[in-house]
Amino acid sequence: MGIGGCVIVFALGAILAFAVDWHLAGVNLHLVGVILMIAGLLGLVAYVRVFRRRRLGTDVVEERRYVD
Length: 68
Prior knowledge:
The chain is mostly helical. The chain has one domain. It contains 2 helices and no strands. Helix 1 packs antiparallel against helix 2. The termini are far apart.
């Protein structure tokens, strides 16, 4: 899941946690919203850590020697 997916999961969780006022039998939608928000944040943090690690490992040092 990329950055967009994490943001969508977080936004869906925020909608369920703060904007929904109807009730579903046997399901606490506010708790589901909070869980989705946490999952979105954890996914975003994990993605950023992996992306940073990839970016740090791609430094290329090039040495050119000219012979006359």
